[in-house]
Design a protein that fits this description.
TerB-like; 0% strand
Length: 141
């Protein structure tokens, strides 16, 4: 995993703790993120151990996340809040707080959260290009 991927995973763990516990469906989402980030066994064990301690939004390293990574985090947080099939008012409030914390306008945050409703995020091209690897040139039409 890249350092940014670890930051995103740790941030999602903080989101999972919003209701004071990490249930099985939320834990499954965290594991899926680790798989998506191609975490090796050491990284996975480190992050699963990290998830055992209660976390808050204060644990999110906002200053270390760039725009597209912030979008990735908010979209995955939206998926995580729906992991148990119910998105309660505390989870909706959390997404609003997270959107504010990440520097999104209300409209931007709403669009990102809405894009995650169907279970598939629409991410910017190259949003997960490993650090140090050049991104593809943008195409203007």
């Amino acid at each position: 995993m890249t350092p940014t991927e670890k930051r995103i995973a740790k941030s999602l763990i903080a989101v999972a703790w919003v209701d004071g516990k990490v249930d099985e469906s939320e834990n499954d989402i965290v594991k899926a993120v680790l798989t998506g980030f191609d975490a090796n066994e050491n990284d996975a064990n480190e992050l699963l151990a990290y998830a055992k301690t209660r976390r808050t939004l204060d644990d999110i390293p906002v200053k270390e996340l760039e725009g597209e990574h912030r979008e990735l985090l908010l979209g995955n947080a939206a998926l995580l809040t729906r992991a148990d099939g119910i998105q309660d008012s505390a989870e909706k409030d959390l997404l609003k707080q997270l959107g504010d914390l990440l520097g999104f306008s209300a409209e931007q945050a709403k669009a990102i959260v809405e894009s995650a409703k169907d279970g598939a995020l629409r991410l910017p091209k190259d949003s997960l290009v490993p650090e140090g690897r050049p991104k593809a040139p943008s195409q203007k039409q």
